[in-house]
Write a structure and sequence with these properties.
It is a single chain. With 310 residues, this protein is α/β, with parallel strands linked by helices. The protein has 2 domains: 6-161, Rossmann fold; 183-308, Rossmann fold, CATH 3.40.50. It has helices spanning 6-18, 38-43, 55-67, 78-81, 86-95, 123-128, 141-151, 200-212, 230-238, 255-266, 286-292, 297-308; strands at 24-28, 48-50, 71-77, 101-105, 134-136, 158-161, 183-186, 191-195, 217-221, 224-226, 242-250, 270-276. A 7-stranded mixed β-sheet has the order 2-1-3-4-6-5-10, with helices on both faces. A 5-stranded mixed β-sheet has the order 7-9-8-11-12, sandwiched between helices.
């Protein structure tokens, strides 16, 4: 089965594990349908908590359950989870060091047509700024499964952001995966393209376009936005003439900003960040928005060539 939403994979993994681990608890803020967790709620009613539209309570209740020895996974639209419950994430989860996994659903511009109120274009910047919080943005169903299987028992707080729509496959079932290590998709010596989440596939496709024009690209999937894989960034930047970052996030404070800091400190060179602008994003379907801002394979390849010729 190809092209399924990453949120559906999260439900599948949690359902598989909930059968044998009664400490796994899923909490939702009136979002079980949006999170693809309806099947989990029906199959494991005693391991499911509906708090209603109350994101702050969602996080605090999850933190309390973690203190009682449970393994809570709190799911809510990323736009609300990362803003309305910011204090609870900072204090009840990170500062108190509770084993809460926050699932930000419909991340980025998944709710494209609903506008800025439903876009989560600042969640990397806000949540990654909190000491003790990890931030993961998997690219496809295979990576999402590997990530969930890796963190389900690790006892550390984390924020996992996934989109609403079906995601094209980047990998296959036997993909290599190491927690907190970026995945190298291709090696090249001309341009390094570092991407995360749903931008990995167009980054990979852009590399194919560039290869057809005699330009080799080092493509890096930085699904682990925090802790960012510093050594992988240095390797990619050192091997290339310039670096491009691509992310479904605002231009300020995201993965691109982190990469730029590493490059400037460790291996100075040209860096261009492709991201959403620092302004209200246009409304429309996700792909329409991506196309408008050049966040597609053609746009990434074009930006790469321009950067190399500067």
């Amino acid at each position: 089965m190809n092209n399924i939403p990453n949120r559906q994979v999260i439900c599948e993994v949690l359902s598989e594990r909930a059968k044998i681990d009664k400490d796994i608890i899923v909490l939702c803020s009136d979002s079980r349908g949006s999170a693809s967790l309806t099947d989990f709620a029906e199959a494991f009613p005693e391991q499911f908590v509906e708090v209603g539209i109350a994101e702050q309570s969602l996080v605090s209740v999850a933190a309390g359950m973690a203190r009682a020895g449970k393994k809570p996974f709190a799911a809510s639209p990323a736009s609300f989870l990362s803003t309305r419950s910011m204090e609870q994430i900072k204090v009840d989860v990170a500062y108190s060091h509770t084993n809460v996994k926050l699932i930000g659903i419909s991340g980025g511009i998944s709710y494209g047509a609903l506008g800025m109120t439903h876009h989560s274009a600042q969640d990397i910047a806000t949540i990654a700024s909190i000491p003790g919080m990890r931030v993961y943005i998997p690219s496809d169903r295979h990576q999402t499964r590997k990530l969930m299987e890796a963190i389900i028992d690790d006892g550390e707080p984390a924020y996992i952001r996934v989109g609403r729509n079906a995601a094209d496959d980047v990998y296959d079932n036997d993909m290599s995966f190491t927690l907190n290590k970026a995945n190298v998709i291709s090696h090249g010596g001309d341009i390094a393209i570092i991407a995360c989440g749903e931008m990995v596939k167009p980054a990979k496709d852009a590399a194919e376009i560039l290869r057809g024009e005699g330009i080799s690209a080092f493509v890096l999937d930085m699904y682990c936005v925090k802790p960012i894989d510093k050594s992988a960034v240095i390797e990619a930047a050192s091997a290339s003439k310039a670096v491009i970052t691509v992310e479904e996030h605002g231009i300020i404070g995201g993965m691109g900003a982190m990469v730029s800091q590493i490059v400037s400190e460790c291996c100075p060179g040209k860096v261009k960040n492709i991201a959403l602008p620092d302004e209200p994003v246009i409304t429309g379907k996700s792909q329409e928005v991506f196309d408008y801002y050049g966040m597609n394979a053609v746009g990434i390849a074009k930006a790469a060539k321009e950067l190399l010729h500067e």
